[in-house]
Amino acid sequence: MIKNFICSPNITILEALKKIDLSGLRCIYIENNNKLVGSLTDGDIRELILKNVNLNKKIKNYFNKKPKFLERKNFTIENAKNIFFKHAIDTLPITQNSRILEIITLKDIIKNKSFFEKNSVVIMAGGQGKRLLPFTSILPKPLIPINGTPIIKLIINSFDSENLKEIFVTTNYKNSILKSYLKDEIKNKKLVFIDEKKPLGTAGSLSLINKKMLSNDFIVTFCDIFFQKNMKNVLNFHKKNRNDLTIVVAKKRDQLPYGVCKFSKSGKFIKINEKPISEYFVNVGYYILNKKMLKYVSKRKKFDMTELIKVIKLNKQKIKTYPIQEDEWHDVGQWTHYRNAIENLGKS
């Protein structure tokens, strides 16, 4: 287990990101000559991605050179607790003469699971799915199959029951079919259905949810996207930064199949950039919201998530983005993307 958390300073940023994902937690530690020399979190790597740092570079110039640790001779439960809470960290190396003997987590120290807040999830599943006709003329979009399993079931099963309060499913189009399926198929998680009497946009149905039922921070996702990795790190990132809204974004690369001409205002030719590549971050439709932000949602009328984001920003609430790689998520909201997702998943 411990080897999953330790690496050399000579691995690449991309290799470090994969190692963090494999470890199941948010941090890895760097050793040189069997001595602890640093740490690197998923948050550190996300910052590098946002800054467009080449992920094939070595981590030696980017990791934290002053990691938190506890020497074995000073180890007590109380000392460990103090470090965890003071620095808001999830893992802590126990060392002897700077060598890592063990890596402990906060859960190792605090066995009472009620200490950890369970989180609510809202799945927006009321849309008509017009881009997926003729499939959606018969069945609702959330029941589109991915390798034989409806996407909404894949999304629901991706959430860890231990840390889950309940799942709210907003419904409108063909809601009786969707609700009947979920009641029959989902037995191990608490589902709460929120029925729209009329379409309320991509955020309007949030106004129908009883705030008292929601966790302080809750996840909002749409029923036409899913991820190939554990998204628990997004929630940890949101809470650690005390965000009011966290928006998951994915890095995209597009290459124009033409040469792009550059010329002056007078029309004088300067040069041609042959098939230029553009890089940008796209909103994938996955959010973490503090429930206080629901006061900005228009009541019982059409209101989209883009409008909610604008209002939250205008009111100077804290918004941060959490970047992921392009191949870490799949959008099946239209046939082209759906076919790409099926093909890519078949290769994995």
Q: What would your notes on this structure say?
A:
It contains nine helices and 19 strands. The protein has 348 residues and is α/β, with parallel strands linked by helices. The chain has two domains: 2-113, CBS-domain; 117-347, Spore Coat Polysaccharide Biosynthesis Protein SpsA, Chain A, CATH 3.90.550.10. Helix 3 (77-87) links the parallel strand 4 and strand 5 (91-96). The longest helix is centred in the last third of the chain and has 13 residues, at 335-347. It is globular and about 65 Å long.
Keywords:
globular, 348 residues, three-stranded mixed β-sheet, CBS-domain, seven-stranded mixed β-sheet, 9 helices, 2 domains, Spore Coat Polysaccharide Biosynthesis Protein SpsA, Chain A, alpha/beta, 24% helix
Outline the fold blueprint.
Blueprint: E1 6-7, H1 13-23, E2 27-32, E3 35-41, H2 42-50, E4 70-71, H3 77-87, E5 91-96, E6 99-105, H4 106-109, E7 119-124, E8 145-146, E9 149-150, H5 151-157, E10 164-171, H6 175-185, E11 191-195, E12 217-222, E13 225-227, H7 232-240, E14 245-255, E15 259-263, E16 269-274, E17 277-290, H8 305-314, E18 319-324, E19 329-331, H9 335-347
Parallel strand pairs: 1-2, 4-5, 7-10, 7-12, 10-11, 14-18
Antiparallel strand pairs: 2-3, 5-6, 8-9, 12-17, 13-19, 14-17, 15-16
